Recover the amino acids of this structure.
């Protein structure tokens, strides 16, 4: 009796072993790419085999040296690139809907629901990683966790939780209302003085964020707020940076105007978001500090030129057309000066999924096409601190891969038509044409 039991267990163990070995085997896939863009050198390599195992790129070799197999995923008519990254998104926020998406009339759960839809849109658009920098409540944290757990499909997310701002600052909603009618921005979002900022950062960390976002100047979408005006003092911003650093986290600063950019850089932030009114003095500080610039040309283009909103109260002193052109010029100046630029679009200000339209705007402003792609791969990975895992098609890195028809170095608009998306070795999208 005892012997039979032992034998039975032995067979069970063997069966489990064989099944798990098969499962491992299935995790291997092989892609044949017509060509692969090496984002470091800016060169293409033709007819390449990419072997993927357990979510990582195991081997890159010449396809011509091996006998072709029907098991390969055939991307021989396509150009393969590393998965794209957008480091300034608001996946749980559909601000572009205006009054239809009334932030404080909606239950908190609504933000998570729109996030589920938008996350899939971004993944399908080729964005395998995003940095989500603020939305109401902690919807981004919930969305990140749902994707990480495999409940839903979406990009790998780094999330900030709600942007921390001063009383009456950008993101403190309900400006100009008398106190008895005031819209109450949730606690942990509005903080004044060093101690409150410190506490807000601690609370954000407690609630599961990966980084901190602060408002260092006013903004466009908050009533009464002036984009060019500085808000937090250097000590307040430094408190945020110090408190975040204790956990190994960095701070992203929303900043349009010169003084706010300067304050944020002095405080030691990792990135300046927007920098739409940046002049040469603060650009110099940004450069010397090695701080990343995230300049959202697409959101500005949409907001200023496609919807033609009235920003005459924002002390910009020009038409929407002039405001956009001035922003594109500042972007070009920062690029020529050699500042570190990471690709961020402010997705949510415009309809999610159009993110890749920004490549053409960056090139139109004067950026080399390869650098526009580097900003969304190599350089974005550096900003996120994942450059050892992502941002290139290289052995040992995460198998985050996309494929397009045509030549994205000759025509940035090819990046708007993504035919294949793989995230960590798992195919998220495959829409290959059957005829060549
Ligand atoms: Zn934003």
């Amino acid at each position: 009796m005892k012997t039979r039991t032992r034998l039975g267990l032995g067979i069970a163990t063997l069966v489990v072993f064989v099944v798990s070995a098969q499962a491992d085997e299935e995790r291997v896939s092989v892609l044949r790419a017509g060509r692969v863009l090496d984002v470091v050198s800016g060169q293409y390599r033709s007819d390449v085999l990419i072997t993927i195992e357990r979510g990582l790129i195991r081997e890159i070799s010449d396809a011509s040296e091996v006998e072709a197999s029907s098991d390969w995923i055939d991307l021989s008519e396509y150009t393969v690139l590393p998965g794209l990254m957008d480091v300034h998104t608001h996946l749980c926020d559909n601000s572009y809907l205006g009054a239809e998406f009334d932030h404080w009339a909606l239950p908190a759960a609504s933000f998570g629901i729109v996030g589920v839809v938008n996350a899939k849109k971004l993944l399908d658009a080729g964005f395998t990683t995003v940095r989500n920098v603020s939305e109401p409540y902690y919807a981004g944290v919930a969305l990140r966790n749902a994707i990480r757990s495999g409940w839903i499909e979406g990009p790998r997310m780094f999330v900030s939780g709600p942007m921390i701002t001063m009383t009456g600052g950008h993101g403190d909603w309900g400006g100009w209302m008398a106190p008895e009618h005031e819209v109450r921005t949730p606690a942990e979002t509005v903080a004044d003085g060093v101690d409150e900022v410190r506490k807000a950062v601690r609370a954000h960390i407690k609630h599961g964020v990966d980084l901190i976002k602060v408002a260092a100047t006013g903004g466009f979408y908050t009533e009464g707020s002036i984009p060019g005006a500085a808000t937090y003092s250097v000590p307040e911003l430094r408190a945020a940076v110090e408190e975040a650093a204790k956990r190994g986290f960095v701070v992203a600063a929303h900043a349009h105007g010169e003084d706010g950019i300067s304050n944020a850089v002095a405080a030691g932030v990792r990135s300046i978001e927007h920098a739409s009114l940046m002049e040469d003095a603060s650009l110099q500080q940004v450069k010397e500090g090695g701080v990343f610039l995230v300049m959202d040309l697409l959101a500005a283009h949409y907001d200023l030129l496609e919807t033609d909103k009235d920003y005459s109260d924002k002390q910009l002193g020009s038409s929407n057309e002039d405001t956009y052109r001035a922003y594109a010029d500042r972007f070009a100046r920062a690029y020529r000066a050699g500042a570190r630029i990471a690709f961020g679009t402010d997705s949510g200000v415009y309809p999610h999924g159009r993110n890749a339209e920004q490549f053409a705007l960056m090139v139109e402003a004067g950026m080399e096409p390869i650098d526009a792609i580097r900003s969304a791969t190599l350089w974005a990975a550096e900003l996120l601190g994942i450059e050892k895992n992502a941002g290139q098609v290289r052995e040992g890195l995460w198998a985050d891969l996309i494929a397009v028809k045509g030549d994205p170095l000759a025509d940035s608009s090819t990046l708007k038509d993504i035919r294949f998306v793989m995230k960590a070795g798992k195919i998220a999208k495959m829409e290959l044409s059957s005829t060549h």
User: Anything to note?
Assistant: The pocket of zinc ion is lined by residues 88, 90, 133, 346 (CB under 6 Å). The two ends are 65 Å apart (CA to CA). Confidence is low (pLDDT under 50) at residues 1-25. The first helix runs from residue 2 to 26.
